[in-house]
C-alpha cells in the first residue's frame, strides 16, 4: 500500500488513544493489516528501483507527511496523531536499512513483511479505490466526523 494510507491510518489511531505505549504498537500493526488489503502497488524491491519509481515514492511520502502535519496542526492532541503517523511506517524502514547496508541485511524480516503483502494484480481503479477510501476514512476519524 502507498505510504499515505499507512501514515493517515496511524494518525487516526493516534487521535483515538491517549498513551504512546498503545499508539506505537497498534499503528505499527496497522501497517501489516493495510498491506494485506487488496490494492495496487505491490511490494517494491528497493534494490531495483528505477528513477521514476523512486520519485513516485518520494512524492507519496511528501504527500503523506504533509497531510499528517496539516491535519495535526492546531489540534490539542497533535502529538499522539503525529506519533501514530510515524509509527505506522516503522515496518517499512527495513527498505532504507537494506539500501544503506546491503540487500542481504534483515532478510528474515523482509520475508516476513512480504507475507503480509497483497500479491495479486489488480486493475488500477479498484486498486486505488481501496487506498483512497482508507485515506478518506482515516481523515474523518482524525477530524472527528465519525
Describe the 3D structure.
This protein has seven helices and no strands. By secondary structure, it is mainly α. The longest helix is centred in the middle third of the chain and has 22 residues. Keywords: Membrane, Transmembrane, Transmembrane helix.
Strand residues, percent? under 5%
User: Count of helical segments?
Assistant: 7
Rg over alpha carbons: 15 Å
> How many discrete structural domains?
1
Q: Which of globular, elongated, flat, extended, rod-shaped describes the shape?
A: globular
User: Percentage of helical residues?
Assistant: 55-70%
Which structural class do the helices and strands define?
Answer: mainly alpha
Largest sheet: none
Measured between the Cα atoms of the first and last residue, the distance is: 23 Å
Keywords: Membrane, Transmembrane, Transmembrane helix
Summary keywords:
146 residues; mainly alpha; 0% strand; globular
Short description:
The protein is mostly helical.
Explain the layout of strands and helices:
Blueprint: H1 3-16, H2 20-36, H3 51-72, H4 78-87, H5 93-101, H6 107-116, H7 124-142
Amino acid at each position: 500500500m502507498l505510504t499515505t494510507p499507512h501514515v493517515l491510518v496511524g494518525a487516526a489511531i493516534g487521535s483515538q488513544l491517549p498513551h504512546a505505549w498503545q499508539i506505537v504498537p497498534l499503528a505499527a500493526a496497522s501497517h501489516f493489516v493495510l498491506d494485506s488489503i487488496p490494492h495496487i502497488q505491490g511490494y517494491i524491491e528497493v534494490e531495483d528501483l528505477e528513477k521514476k519509481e523512486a520519485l513516485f515514492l518520494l512524492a507519496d511520502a511528501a504527500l503523506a507527511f504533509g497531510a499528517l502535519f496539516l491535519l495535526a496542526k492546531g489540534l490539542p492532541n497533535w502529538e499522539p496523531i503525529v506519533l501514530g503517523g510515524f509509527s505506522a511506517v516503522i515496518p517499512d524502514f527495513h527498505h532504507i536499512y537494506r539500501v544503506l547496508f546491503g540487500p542481504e541485511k534483515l532478510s528474515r524480516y523482509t520475508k516476513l513483511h512480504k507475507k503480509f503483502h497483497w500479491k495479486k494484480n489488480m486493475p488500477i481503479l479498484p486498486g486505488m479505490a481501496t487506498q483512497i477510501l482508507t485515506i478518506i476514512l482515516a481523515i474523518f476519524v482524525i477530524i472527528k466526523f465519525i
